[in-house]
Amino acid sequence: MFIDSHCHLNLLAEEEGGLDQILAQAKENNVDHIVSIAIDKASCHDVISIAERYPNITASVGIHPNVDQQENFTVEELISLAQHEKVIAIGETGLDYFRSEGDLEWQRDRFRTHIEAAKQLTKPLIIHTREARDDTMDLLEKEGAEQAGGIIHCFTENWETAQRALDIGFYISLSGIVTFKNAVELQDVAKKLPLDRILIETDAPYLAPVPHRGKTNKPAFVKHVAEFLAELRGDSVQDIAKATSDNFHRLFPTT
Fold first, then answer.
1. Nearest to residue 153, comparing CAs of 130, 173, 123?
2. Phi/psi of residue 111, each to 5°?
3. Domain with 160 in it
4. Nearest CA among 135, 10, 159, 129 for reference residue 64
5. Whose CA is closest to 48, among 30, 29, 61, 31?
6. Which of 78, 94, 238, 247 satisfies CB 3.0 to 4.6 Å to 127 for a cystine?
7. Global pTM?
8. How, if at all, do strands 198-200 and 171-174 pair?
9. Phi, psi at residue 121, to the nearest 5°?
10. How many domains does the chain have?
């Protein structure tokens, strides 16, 4: 059985057949749990509502680094939202210097707020980082994020960054990007990662893995990430499925 550790189910709700069909397809492909991830204030409520409807769905709450700088939570607001029984994580949060320009101290302040809320709640962080690897890791280390733990989601960084994340107890989540032909450096990292620290995800509706690249991604497709990793690393698909599921439940023991 597989776990999709990062999916934006609220963005799939308008697909033909709706969420019921999306989740039925996931079940047919042995996906037994999905984490629906928020990216802004509106989607926080959306993902909680979805998680309330389905027993095998949990949620995160947070604001993506590229959301307008005027949209913010206080630590107290995040804590209040995250106390819902179906909310298991804070995020996605982090730093993204690819889509945002200028003085980005507001991004770093927002990131610090999420880290503080996660620490107070002792709920893991879901981290997004793009073209900001050093600042992301520096802030996680300086702000004591190891007290909360978490995931570097949709990992596309180098081995040095992976090591820094592993050193503070974080998990590395691999998406469909690892199946892309041009992802040579990432594939090398994936081979080196300890099996007990890997998670898998879709980031649906984005980044569909081979053989569905270019199409709308769905939780059912997380099996292709697992199958590719098994071949890449010389493991069995069953070993990848068991390890990544065990890792998920270790990080989120209430699921």
1. 173
2. -60, -45
3. 2-251
4. 129
5. 61
6. 94
7. 0.97
8. parallel
9. -85, -20
10. 1
Which is it for strands 87-96 and 57-61: parallel, antiparallel or unpaired? parallel
CB 202 within 8 A of CB 29: no
Give the Cβ contact number of residue 70 at 10 Å: 6
Q: Write the DSSP symbol of residue 85.
A: T
Residue 60, beta-bridge partner list: 89
Q: Residue 16: its pLDDT value, please?
A: 86
Cα–Cα–Cα angle for 218, 210, 40, nearest 5°? Answer: 40
Task: Name the amino acid, one letter, at 182.
Answer: N
- What pLDDT, on the 0 to 100 scale, is given for residue 65? 98
pLDDT of residue 254: 87
Give, as one character, the DSSP assignment of residue 62. Answer: -
> What integer pLDDT is reported at residue 102 of this predicted model?
86
* pLDDT score of 101: 83
Residues 6+ apart with CB under 8 A from 144: 115, 119
User: What DSSP character marks residue 208?
Assistant: P
Taking the chain (255 residues) in runs of 10, the rounded mean pLDDT of each run is 98 93 98 98 98 98 97 98 98 95 94 98 98 98 98 98 98 98 98 98 98 97 98 98 98 94
Peptide bond into 92 cis (omega under 30): yes
Count the helix, strand and coil residues of the chain and give each as a percent rounded to the nearest 5.
45, 15, 35
- Here the CATH number for the domain that contains residue 45 is 3.20.20.140
